[in-house]
Amino acid sequence: MVKTRPVVGIPPVTKVKASSALKRQRRSYLMMLLPALLLVIGIMIPFLQGVARSFTNEKGYVPNPTFIGFDNYISLFTNSTFLTGLGVTILYVVLILAIQLPLALAIALLLEKASPVRRIGRNFIVLPLLIPPIVAGLMWKTMMQPSAGVLNYLMELVGIPGSTWLTDPATALISVVLIDTWAFTSFSALIILAGLQALPESLREAASIDGAGWWSTFRHIALPWLAPYIVLVALFRVADSLKQFDLIWPVTRGGPLNSTRLLHVQGYEEAFRFSSPAMAMAIIFVLWLIIYLSSFLLLRLWRRTINAVE
Amino acid sequence: MGKNITVVAAIAVATLLMGACSSGEVIDPAEGNPGADLRAGEAYDPRAFEGESINMLLIEHPFVNSLRPLIPDFEAATGITVNLEVLNEQQGFDKLQADLSAGVGNYDLFMTDPLHNWQYSAAGWIEPLDGYVENDAITMPDYNIDDFAPGVLDAGRWNRELLTGLGEGSLWALPVNFESYNLTYRPSMFEDAGVEVPTTYEDVLDVTESLATSLSGNNYPIVTRFDKYWDLTYLTFGSMAESYGVNLLNDDGEVDIASDASVEVTDLFIDIIKAGSPQDASAFTWYEVLQGMASGRFALALNEADLFAATYENDAESEIADDVGYALIPEGPEKRAASAWIWQLSMAQASADKGAAWTFLQWLTSADVLMQTHLAGNMNPVRLSAWEDPELAALVDTWGSEPGQYREVLEGTAEIAAINYPPHPELTRALDRWAEAVQQSFFDGNTKANLESAASDIERILLP
Q1: Residue ranges of the alpha helices (H) in B277-313?
Q2: Which residues from chain B sit within 8 angstroms of residue A145, using beta carbons?
Q3: CB within 8 Å: A275 and B97
Q4: Domain contains B68
């Protein structure tokens, strides 16, 4: 009898537990419903409306826009200005990654080691992040003026010929990339620095006992450990660079010629200079697809690097 | 006074609107007569809209500085509060476009121009003003619309028929100043270099080359705007192209910017800039021109706005107030040509306080108030009566390297100044594309190919 009581008593207890778990689950679903609805209303509906507009001939002076299928997209991919913008956008992202990732890694390594520059450097590195990109852009635009800017003045003082910087199509894109590098590399460096600080000391000690030098430790221990952090930085920088606007617009407005006219700048111009929201949405939708695809691939790579570390 | 009457006559015929081919397409012929019934049957009362508040978007311009001190008088007289927002030209137009296209009516009134108003009126974003002007219940009794120079006022009219109909149909804006283009030069630098003021564009190149050998340091022979935007092809380079017989559209309505004459004038323009401008000339906007010339760095401003004289002559804002002269825009092989630019004020269709907005608009464009702005540097006057004012005449007579020089140049310019382009909502896009081709030729030298490519694109934009 003593033994059976608990046996008899178990099923009701389990039922109560299951019932309350179900209730809790339902409640949590209900609690998620409101944010989900807000998400749908606030993001998905405008997004889908925007995509729908890209299939019309809507312009400021067209009284009754009509559905025109893929005409806007066909027009884009047969338009040299758009294709140039697409190429410039991709080149911009490649240059950003090629310059900023190694630089951010180097800064992180410098700030990780105990040295006199570490404390000062850690305080100064966040300063560019505190300056709005528009202000940073205008500041550098002034400094990069070929005939009256301080950069050329300083370069000529030490015997280096001045550059045309933002005023020549040959140098404008790299000049904007340099401004971007000044503004955003510290963000990347801080993430990589956080990764370096999370590296278990025991791994370094083990490598040291095995006689590994700095390079060998970095190459075989730190770098694999940092891989997920570096990919994460790449993910952020790719997405941010693809939709870069607030740094370019005040500095070059996409010029000279189309040398810095990224797709986001083109989309803005279509919408707000030429009153062509349909074409603007077509450009922005193509840009969104590129960002989505590149982010998807980088996320997969990120998961793979995490698995490798584990 | 005889001299002043000459100016009046010149301005009266100024900016006569050029004929153009017609596409025959009317965007939306249906339009009401807003403002006509506002306070219908009542007597005019300046305080009729007391307690209301209006927002106005202004573009950085000497007009704005001349207006600010007058606002308190208006607010005291009407009980209407006026909030001003001032932005530079590019930011201002971008922000305005966003506001108008969204239909939110944040700005009741704003500074504009015929080129932009062709977009705004075609889209139905701005209010036709005829009903307001004709309504005695809301328009002050002594408001004289016939006092505006007819050509200048009519630049605010358009019947919304693509590529034609300028000066016809509804009145979309009221003018506040008018500018055309001239040569502004530094007599001392010209004397030192032993050169005369150029009269043709070939002369400009010769003079630039001579000045280049005599100037040193941070001083340069020539400055003109050269950014890749519509104002290059609409105004400054546009004036030069017109004098070479180059038009955006020819008499048959075809895009005509890749002709031999167009290649010739583009190459000459580029040669002039390369001979005497700084490395960053390709990024110069009108603002860099104004600041650069006023700072004393340049010997000659080519085809730039004549109303910059108000700044150049003001020794608080300029280093060249006692060393500046003016000359007529150079002559081309076909003729002497000068574009016209008119700053206007328009009312947003989405404005929630149209009565108050109109009260301010008519007050600001009345003869007395405009006269006060002109005396404070808002040039050039658009009302005929302003040119008869002795105080203004005395002020303008001091401008230039000799008495009466500015006025004499203005008289000559006013006789030829014109809007040389047909109205179209996408004209800014077309002119941007042409400007891009001119700038591209500066960098790669392939003028003919660049202009042909631009012509092809412009054909798709304007003549689909």
Answers
A1: 286-294, 309-312
A2: 280
A3: yes
A4: yes
